[in-house]
Structure formats: C-alpha cells, structure tokens
C-alpha cells in the first residue's frame, strides 16, 4: 500500500460541504462571521507518550482527545482537525484500528479531519494533531483571567491515570483489579470539551490538567498574579484508589498527569450557573478551593494547616 492509497483508505471521510477536506494541496476552512478561531497542536511520540503495544483504537481516540481537551480549556467549540502521522512501516491492522478510534471521537465531537501529512519515521510512531475551534471574541478562558475571590473548580476525578501509569511502568506493583479499574482513565480519556466551551463567558481562567493539578494550577496563578488554596479533603479522588496508602493517593491526585479534566476559576456568584451547565453536559464538578491575594499554591489538609506543596507536576526537561 503506497502513501496515497493509505491516506485515501484510512483517512478520507466526508467533510462538511462548506469546507474542503483531504485530497488537495490545502484544506479550505470557511470562517464563521464574527467568530474567533482557537488553534492548538499536540504531538504524541511512541515510548514517550504511549507504550508501543497500546491498543491502536485507544491511541487514535486519545491522540484527538488531548487536543479537544485544549480547545475545551480555552472555551472553544471544535471545528476541524489535521493529522500528521509518521510511521516506521505500513501496518494495515494497526491503521484500521487507529483510524476507527480517531474517527469515532472526531464524529462525536463534530470535528472533521480536513487534511494532514503522512511520512515514514524509522525511529517509531509520531502523531501530531492540529485542532481549530471557534468562540466568540473576548470569551476565551485565559490562564491570566483568574480573579481574587474566585472559586476553583475541577471536573471529573483525579488519580486513576497516574496509578495506571505507575503500574505499567513498574513503579508500583501491579494489581490486576486496580489496573483494570484505572487503565481507561489513562488510555481513553473523555475530556469535557463541550462543557468547557459552555464556560466561555461564564468562568474566568481555565486549564486542562495534563501535567498534574499542582503544576497546571500554578500556571494559572503565575499568569494571573494571585495565590490559591485548595482543600485536600475536597479533591475528587477516583474510587478505584480506595485502600491505597495515603501518601501515594495524595501524590497521584496532586501531581499525577494525563488527567485531561478541566480546572477553572469563576466568581462565587456563578456557582449555580456552573452546576446547571455541568448537569446539562453530564459532567461532575467539584469546588476544590479558592483564589486569593498573594503568591503560590497552598494545600489545606483536614486540620486546616497550610502546607506548601513540595510536589510538582510532570516536566519533560526536569
Ligand atoms: P502534499 O505533497 O501536497 O503536501 P500529500 O501528498 O502530503 O500532499 O497529501 C495529500 C492529501 O492528503 C492532502 O490533502 C493532505 O492534507 C492529505 N493527507 C495526507 N496525510 C494525511 C493524514 N494522515 N490524514 C489526513 N489527511 C492526510
Ligand atoms: Mg506532504
């Protein structure tokens, strides 16, 4: 199978008539009047972001999911995506499953694949996806938009992806039941991107938790020049973690990456509206703390003592 057959067979599906998809030198995107475009690109490298033997259907899903997560964290509605794929060889079974997982989510997200590039890379698989979303001007959920007195909210639950990853890496002993319960969070995340888009104009700052709650929340604090306190006992811990040592749970919940949930801030007066939007989108939301004047991130335990968090998140170059 040559490059052109591969593209035609696996990556050409119908696209909206007002745009132009796969098959020409460029795709064509028709901007909607009065809307601002949000763009993001993310790369997944074999051995770095995923295990070589990961289920290709789940990989296709996750590769797009992490990009949709960025759109949601900006308050943008998905519009279209592009896929650059670098493969050591043409494995049709792998491509079949990968493209199925990819398109299943793309169709659910109403985010057609308009083009891409396909090359050979002897070193391993590299997947790069570009997404474009749209939103009303001045409604983006900027990291710099947190305000003194804001509530800090989190969608979904924490800890499962990290506990799955640690077991797969051999950092902690594998328990079959625990791994089975935690693995979907790592391998098939469902970021609340529709809910994120609905927060545009309602919430202030937002970020998706890709590198760990502590590290990602710190990005908001730095950009917004404010401090935050989060309550340890309010953090939504994935039920699968029950029974694990407390220090391990805390570490995974505070610093574990690959979560793809949203952390956002909003004025306390918006709480009923946020609860209503979350219910409408079937998303679990928890108020985990608040923004205040000062610097840094504080984690308050049950005794209400303030702990300066020592843990960071995941940093590629640390
Ligand atoms: P060019 O050489 O002009 O860059 P290519 O031969 O790379 O064009 O690609 C041919 C067409 O197929 C283009 O429309 C491109 O966007 C699309 N395409 C290539 N690879 C992919 C892919 N992995 N997924 C979706 N579309 C792709
Ligand atoms: Mg090309």
Notes on the protein architecture:
Its EC number is 2.7.4.16. Catalyzes the ATP-dependent phosphorylation of thiamine-monophosphate (TMP) to form thiamine-pyrophosphate (TPP), the active form of vitamin B1. It is an enzyme of class 2 (transferase). Belongs to the thiamine-monophosphate kinase family. The chain is of the alpha+beta class and 318 residues long. It folds into two domains: 3-135, PurM-like, N-terminal domain (60s Ribosomal Protein L30, Chain: A, 2-Layer Sandwich); 143-307, Phosphoribosyl-aminoimidazole Synthetase, Chain A, domain 2 (Alpha-Beta Complex). The chain has nine helices and eleven strands. The chain has helices at residues 3-11, 56-74, 92-108, 160-169, 176-187, 193-198, 213-224, 246-255, 271-281; strands at 36-45, 77-87, 113-120, 126-135, 151-155, 206-208, 227-231, 262-266, 285-292, 296-300, 306-307. The strands form two sheets. A seven-stranded mixed sheet has the order 6-8-5-9-7-10-11. Strand 2, helix 3 (92-108) and strand 3 form a beta-alpha-beta unit. The model has no long low-confidence stretch (mean pLDDT 94). Adenosine-5'-diphosphate (ADP) is lined by residues 7, 11, 22-25, 83, 85, 113, 115-118.
